[in-house]
């Protein structure tokens, strides 16, 4: 299994996943040019991508789609309501669009879409299942519903949102309406809520990318402190029972090559 988070945060998100020779992008919120360049950096030709699966229609998840569709003709999979709500729908060729139900197949992979609580048309996260591996993406979450918790359980690799520190958000410079949106049940997940989802996870030794981190209301040192403190108190040793890695906005972060082959 190869997993690389090409970009993560409010300025754009895209994740590359390859399992059993099927290659996917999950979200395409950075430019097609940058996606192509980042893929080359990890030895992948963009022409060999089998599909793009989209979580929801916010721009930081779809900005690269028009060019990816036009130039490379890559099939795009998402909920019908998500396609309908895309600002760039007119620029996408109908042939590229594949509306999905809760389970679908791309190449050798079986993919589950699970509903998330977020302020978009029909937002989902994804669990990608190979023969023996499971990789789950759960970002842009107002809170961790029982559906989300069930989906992240048993994941070998998990990309989980740790968006903000509650105190930094409350005391920060954002207008009150935006603070309320982020904190609401349909907004974004805080560091401590991410930690509790990890504590409840049924899996030994998962590799976790902490993702969609706010540049205004969070920082790696604070997130690390909050999350490790909570999981340690619950008997989980970071580094031994679970590996934590931070995804980045402007840099590719890759799963170590010897993990979950
Ligand atoms: Zn969003
Ligand atoms: Zn987002």
UniProtKB/TrEMBL annotation:
<feature type="domain" description="Metallo-beta-lactamase">
    <location>
        <begin position="11"/>
        <end position="188"/>
    </location>
</feature>
<dbReference type="InterPro" id="IPR052533">
    <property type="entry name" value="WalJ/YycJ-like"/>
</dbReference>
<protein>
    <submittedName>
        <fullName>Phosphoribosyl 1,2-cyclic phosphodiesterase</fullName>
    </submittedName>
</protein>
<dbReference type="Pfam" id="PF12706">
    <property type="entry name" value="Lactamase_B_2"/>
</dbReference>
<dbReference type="InterPro" id="IPR001279">
    <property type="entry name" value="Metallo-B-lactamas"/>
</dbReference>
<dbReference type="InterPro" id="IPR036866">
    <property type="entry name" value="RibonucZ/Hydroxyglut_hydro"/>
</dbReference>
